[in-house]
Design goal:
Blueprint (H helix, E strand, L loop, with lengths): L1 H15 L5 E4 L12 H11 L5 E3 L6 H10 L2 H14 L7 E6 L1 H12 L5 E7 L19 H11 L3 H6 L12 H7 L3 H4 L7 H8 L3 E7 L15 E2 L7 E2 L5 H4 L5 H6 L3 E6 L8 H7 L6
Parallel strand pairs: 1-2, 1-3, 3-4, 4-5, 5-8
Antiparallel strand pairs: 6-7
Helix pairs in contact: 4-5, 5-10
């Protein structure tokens, strides 16, 4: 009888465990509260993990501001706003998992590396561009000003005014002019320890349990697709792509990724689809285990 009572208590204890909270950051052209995008993801997660608390980051006071800030507010300011939201939320005080979609992937990595006083367990990057992009082929939702943005990036990405007022310029990575990229880009070279090694960034990233990167093998938005797995064009040209493991970033272990890889903290997932296109079944099988 005692054995049955103890077993019953253990079972009840397991089911009573509160799920690890989840922080989500949407991608370019999207918002925190779109019922068809982030709302759909939240419903999917809640259906698989009953009782989970989810915070979908909103950068701005309104949904419209959130969308436009994804294009126009300097990334460092966005990271500060996200950090403040997370630290102010008592539901996240004991730690959380984080999942970023498209540019939200590298933004949440910036939160992991730059935000004091938080505990991020697993980071899931869904189509994030961790070595940046060198191409701007299309925007979501047929936004009409994308042709203008594309032209500005191709010609003026590292102009100080563009850097201060166009988010996508801040992860524009020109492999043919690495010196200009490192000296003039205000966000990504610092985040990736490309110029100097910030040991705080490195140690915070290495403190993650898992860093999961999802690549879309038929992606038509991200150039090069390898950036979703932290790969990029080999320096000096824009044709040959090298993997993360072939890069100096990895070989010199300036961000801790080599050590994380050897410790099985890096997870590389792929799905056959265009940008952010996946099935619920794929998500449940491949992503939900890292959110529990």
């Amino acid at each position: 009888m005692k054995f049955l009572v103890i077993l019953s208590l253990l079972v009840c204890s397991c089911y009573a465990t509160t799920p690890t909270p989840l922080v989500i950051w949407h991608g370019m052209g999207d918002s925190c509260c779109n019922p068809l995008s982030m709302g759909s993801i939240i419903r999917l997660v809640e259906g698989q993990i009953p009782g989970i608390y989810t915070l979908s980051l909103k950068i701005g006071d309104t949904t419209t501001q959130d969308i436009m800030n994804g294009f126009l507010k300097p990334i460092p300011e966005q990271i500060t706003m996200a950090c403040e939201q997370i630290k102010a939320d008592p539901n996240l005080a004991n730690g959380f998992n984080a999942m970023g979609f498209s540019q939200g992937g590298q933004f949440l990595r910036a939160v992991a590396q730059q935000c004091d006083g938080i505990k991020m367990h697993n980071l899931i990057s869904v189509g994030g561009q961790h070595q940046g992009v060198f191409g701007f082929p299309k925007c979501p939702n047929d936004l009409t000003f994308c042709d203008t943005l594309r032209d500005m990036l191709n010609k003026y990405a590292y102009n100080p005014t563009i850097q201060d007022h166009l988010v996508q310029a801040e992860y524009w990575h020109d492999p043919e002019h690495e010196d200009v990229y490192k000296s003039s880009n205000i966000f990504l070279p610092d985040l990736n320890n490309d110029v100097t090694v910030n040991e705080v960034y490195k140690q915070r990233l290495m403190s993650l349990n898992k860093f999961v990167m999802v690549k879309f093998t038929s992606d038509t938005m991200v150039q090069p697709i390898a950036s979703e797995w932290f790969g990029f064009y080999a320096p000096g040209q824009a044709e040959t792509v090298q993997s993360l493991q072939e890069s100096d970033l990895y070989k010199n272990d300036q961000l801790g990724l080599k050590a994380m890889d050897q410790n099985e903290q890096l997870v590389f997932l792929a799905t056959d689809g265009d940008h952010l296109q996946f099935t619920n079944e794929w998500f449940i099988t491949n992503i939900i285990p890292y959110l529990q």
